Amino acid sequence: MATVIERLDADQKEALKTKDSLRLSVIRLIKASLKNKQIQKGKELTDEDILDVLSSQAKQRKESIQQFLLAKRADLAEKEQKELEIIESYLPKQLSAEEIDEIIKSTLKEASITTTKEIGLAMKLIIPKIKGIADGKYVNQRVREILEAQS
Q1: Model-level pTM?
Q2: pLDDT in the model for residue 86
Q3: CA-CA distance, 3 to 14, in Å (whole number)?
Q4: Separation between Cα atoms, residue 22 and residue 20, nearest integer Å
Q5: Are residues 8 and 31 in contact, defined by beta-carbon separation less than 8 angstroms?
Q6: pLDDT tens track for 101-125
Q7: CATH 1.10.10.410 residue ranges in the chain?
Q8: Position 79 confidence tier, pLDDT thresholds 50, 70, 90
């Protein structure tokens, strides 16, 4: 199984050959972000560090898409969407809504969390389980909904 870095290198070569400028620019941006993170840490990146960088890049694209749609700039939103799809191809498969709900419910049950006042604690327990494979904002929203439905 090739590492993300190896996949990025191979895909960059392929994008150069096929003259896929969008893919090439996104890969270069990811690699630059990874290099910056490595310099910042002062050592080799772990898989978790790489996941953080990719998740951060994906999150930025999602926020940009929302802003462009609000500004009625569908052309720019579409470009960001294509970039997001490229970035997501390097992330692990995202959990389905049912899988996320299952993780939330089992964690709430294990920790005996029953009120919305304990959302902070719930998220602290849930985030390590879903890191990189689910959107934190969505998970937080679902935790709130599930707790409100229980009370």
Answers
A1: 0.76
A2: 95
A3: 16
A4: 6
A5: yes
A6: 999 999 989 988 888 888 899 899 9
A7: 97-150
A8: very high
In terms of C-beta density within 10 A (0-12 exposed, 13-18 middle, 19 or more buried), how is residue 139 classed? buried
Tell me which CATH code domain 97-150 carries: 1.10.10.410
112 Cα distance to chain centroid: 28
**CB neighbours of 53 closer than 8 A, spacing ≥ 6?**
30, 33, 34, 37, 45
CA dihedral 36, 42, 45, 46 (to 10 degrees): -140
Closest CA to 88 of 46, 134, 47: 134
Q: Which CATH number fits domain 4-88: 1.10.1040.10, 1.10.1510.10, 3.20.20.140, 3.30.70.100?
A: 1.10.1510.10
Q: What is the mean pLDDT of the chain?
A: 90
For CATH 1.10.1510.10, list the domain ranges present in the chain.
Answer: 4-88
Give yes or no for residue 34 having a pLDDT over 90.
Answer: yes
